[in-house]
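Weekly structure sync - notes
Attendees: PM, LS, DV (DV joined late)
Agenda: review two folding runs queued last week.

Item 1: First target. Sequence and structure tokens pasted below for the record.
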Amino acid sequence: QVQLKESGGGLVQPGGSLRLSCTASNPTFEPYTTRWFRQAPGKEREFVASISWVIGTTLYADSVQGRFTISRDTTNNTVFLQMSNLQPEDSAVYHCAARSTDGQNDYWGHGTQVTVSS
């Protein structure tokens, strides 16, 4: 079983930055891909970004393209989401999800709250 833990959320003013981290409990776990999602109150869960583990191919939602950067540290089994120029509409609980290489399992973290407010 793999557990994911997100960290790095918090309160930031509009235009500010945060870096989220997603770390797997099993140091030998190598996902096929890791994705970030977010969910604001009363809204559906929204895809934010993804990164493939081996090659590092990235994909972004249009709403964050150019402001967010996803990256991975394969040594420490961690995926990062660097968020810049944050806006109030970015406020949400951010979750990471890792898909196993056989595609049979998706592992989710409990999420970290990001609040953008002046």
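Item 2: Second target, run right after the first with the same settings.
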Amino acid sequence: QVQLVESGGGLVQGGGSLRLSCAASGRTNSGYHMGWFRQAPGKEREFVAAIRWSSGSTYYADDVKGRFTISRDNAKNTVFLQMNSLKPEDTAVYYCAARYYSDPNYDYWGQGTQVTVSS
């Protein structure tokens, strides 16, 4: 089992920045991939970014490339999502998720943290 706890959400003006954190505990090791997803009101949950814990390779959704950066701190078992140049359309609940590298699905999810961007 893997437990994930997000933090760092809040209210920010358009053009501003926020950094989300995801603290992982339990059966975490370098074989996991960590991801950030978001869900806006009335919309389906969508992929935002992911990182391979072992190599640090990163992946981004097209609409956040160049604005968001995912990173990890191995010593603290924590994954971050630095969000810059925020837009009102980035408003959503952001979720941290984890999957083992051989598993196609993200099996472990955090409780989510609200990000609200005002215009």
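Discussion on item 2: The mean pLDDT is 95.
Action: LS to circulate a short write-up before next sync.
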